[in-house]
Amino acid sequence: MNVNEPFDVFRARLNSGEESCEARTQQYLSTISRRKNLNAFLSVFEDEALAHARSVDKKIKAGGAGHLAGMVVAVKDVICMKGKRTTCGSKVLENYEAIYDAAVIEKLRAADAIVIGKTNMDEFAMGSSTENSAFGPVKNPIDETRVPGGSSGGSAVAVAAGMSSTSLGSDTGGSIRQPAGLCGIFGMKPTYGRVSRYGLVAFASSFDQIGPFANSARDVAHILKVIAGHDERDSTSAKLPVPDYLAAMNRDVEGMKIGLPIEYFNEALNPEIRSVLEKRIAQLRDHGAEFIDVSLPHSEYTIATYYILATAEASSNLARYDGARYGYRSPYAKDLSEMYTKSRSEGFGAEVKRRIMLGTYVLSAGYYDAHYRKAQKVRRLIQKDFFDAFKKVDCLMTPISPTTAFKFGEKVDDPLQMYLSDIYTVSANLAGIPGISVPAGVDRQNLPIGLQLLGKQFDESALLKVADFLEQQE
Ligand code: GLN
């Protein structure tokens, strides 16, 4: 039984009775326990997942099973599931049980997907290596001395190591695309507003978006189709119909115009990554796609702008963890003010504290105009760069990350180096546009190299089409 086979193929075998959801779920559970040392999961719903699988098997036999019947999904521990621990990778929420289901969980269930467990992550989704989890780092299954990327490292590893068919992550500045790239799988950040954030614990609300990891572009399309769509409980959710992503994936790229941002292909780009991308560009060209150089002139400001605005929003969102209502409360406090300070000082990890301090600083009265307001204006310019580029092209191709998977400890003590891992990904969150990470090749050490496709707002279809085409090429 090949757990990496495309969902379409597996589903056909389920329908014909050759396969069962129960056996497949059991197989994923065995891999989860065999590869426990990867530390990808924070909770595993063994009995519940098997019981659910048996009920889906019955539904399939009876006819009328949902679109995702047979799909086994792992969910990043920043997405609420009623009655389940939702830790966000933090000591603050170590014992917190969610009191309602996120919109995406409701939708997965309604489509008969099986949720197998919750995955490890950087604390409150802040990080690019999953070394910031309060529950220990996640290892890259390809080379266990290396990071899987982050912050959705556990979700990427679940799919890459065959512990689930697909998974959900969240992407605020690259947290789906970068770990997908470092683990050699597909990962998509949909357009801001495409997928409801109801039940996603907030990091930076104007950037956060939920999206899938999968072994193929078609599997991304299957799950996106289910989780996308308007939800009135998220005021930023778009009132737009969800297109038939699968129908758009016809592998015909003839006449498509693909932009190459000159600022992303500068001399700083790692030569091995460049040569893998060039090979992929040639394949698309051979099949009739046209490549056009475009300029995104404000690219040099993306990291600074992102780390001002995202920290500002985080400092505000994380004010709710005060030890009073829920979450960690320090047992050592003597009065109310000590309860606040000690609960927060003992509960949060170093990176989260750094973000809260940075965010509070850029929002403070004397510095608001110089930092926060200015960054808002630059965000607008960055967004305009993309909108101008999309007047000329259908999508953009860029690297996903400046390096392949790095070693544990290599960047964690140098925040600036870590922040620079996001140099190619944060712009999509600043502009609110969709992006997908596509496995493109390997480096000399056999570590995966991903490429990124960026699209017009709400045009995930174009990205999936190109991704699916590339998947068919050697
Ligand atoms: N690495 C980025 C950060 O630490 C992005 C995180 C994310 O997308 N959640 O902010």
Could you describe the 3D structure shown?
The structure is a single chain. Strand 10 and strand 11 form a beta hairpin. The model has no long low-confidence stretch (mean pLDDT 97). It contains 16 helices and 11 strands. With 474 residues, it is α/β, with parallel strands linked by helices. It has a domain of 221 residues: Amidase signature (AS) enzymes (Alpha-Beta Complex), CATH 3.90.1300.10. The two termini are 23 Å apart. Bound molecules: glutamine. The site of glutamine has 14 residues, from loops.
- Class by alpha and beta content: alpha/beta
- The CATH superfamily name of the domain at 7-227 is Amidase signature (AS) domain
Kindly report the spatial arrangement of strands forming the biggest sheet.
1-3-2-4-6-5-10-11-9-7-8
User: Which blocks of ≥5 consecutive residues have pLDDT under 50?
Assistant: none
**What's the CATH architecture of the domain at 7-227?**
Alpha-Beta Complex
Q: N- to C-terminal separation?
A: 23 Å
The overall average pLDDT, rounded, is: 97
The hetero compounds bound to this protein are:
glutamine
Query: What count of helical segments does DSSP give?
Result: 16
Beta fraction: 5-15%
Report the CATH C-level class of the domain at 7-227.
Answer: Alpha Beta
How many strands? Answer: 11
CATH topology of the domain at 7-227: Amidase signature (AS) enzymes
Overall spatial form = globular
User: Can you give the helix content as a percent range?
Assistant: 25-40%
Give the topology string: H per helix, E per strand. Answer: HHEHEHEHEHEEHHEHEHHHHEHHEEH
What does the largest sheet look like? 11 strands, mixed
Rg to the nearest angstrom? 21 Å
